[in-house]
Design brief:
By secondary structure, the protein is an alpha+beta fold. The protein is built from 6 helices and 7 strands.
Length: 234
Amino acid sequence: MEEKIGVLLLNLGGPETLKDVQPFLYNLFADPDIIRLPGLFKLLQWPLAKLTSVLRAPKSEKGYAAIGGGSPLRKITDEQANALRMALEAKNVNVSVYVGMRYWYPFTEEVIEQVDTLLDGIKWDDKGLAMAIAQNVDTGAILMQGFVNKGALATIITSRKATFFSRSRATLWTKGETSNNFINIYDKRRNKLCVQFSWRGFLLGHVRLLLVKLLEIQEQIGSSNIKMSNLVLI
Ligand SMILES: C=CC1=C(C)c2cc3[nH]c(cc4nc(cc5[nH]c(cc1n2)c(C)c5CCC(=O)O)C(CCC(=O)O)=C4C)c(C)c3C=C
Ligand SMILES: [Fe+2]
């Protein structure tokens, strides 16, 4: 059996939007490795983390607003992961590279869980690719059709943005990286947008499966929660 190597790049994470700043600071201050209180004062760790994060958030938000509205840490770390993945693939190393963060998304624990299950369940073609179609959950309209490799899929999981593998340029590209018109992927934990993955090689064999998937999604999150902007990546 071919050896498979997984590389997990660990970083701390940073708030991606201004709304993330206070909960991010809470995660940071609640960690005794960052702020350690002696003896019984330990019991105050969480209330103090809450208080200081709320007090500090407005000033930090101003700082983040000045640099584009969020931390660049995740983008930089994702880019490092992609560069590493491509460099190892160029050396014919069968590798999957992931990013996990300690204080913000993608949280390390989640990444480990999701990535394993998903990547192993996909039938990759002989070039390591699978067809991916982004579809509006509500209207059924196909928005985007492309190919993904393991790297693109890992990026989708960690960045929550539809990312494809460009066969002509042999690189990953995230839809919207120049236009800012991203296809966002649902994250149950934040209850934001809707996503379901299912991967098959052929578009035609897909339609029925897709309908089944849609029904499943509606059952899972309740049709009232599905907005026009909700997308499904199949
Ligand atoms: C009491 C204040 C703070 C301590 C102590 C502190 C220690 C500490 N922080 C990191 C890593 C990060 N901190 C980040 C942002 C950040 N940290 C604080 C405060 C303390 N950090 C604030 C208020 C903020 C928000 C930004 C700001 O307002 O200045 C980040 C995120 C960086 C990003 O890209 O957004 C990281 C990462 C460590 C490792 C550490 C002690 C070892
Ligand atoms: Fe800090």
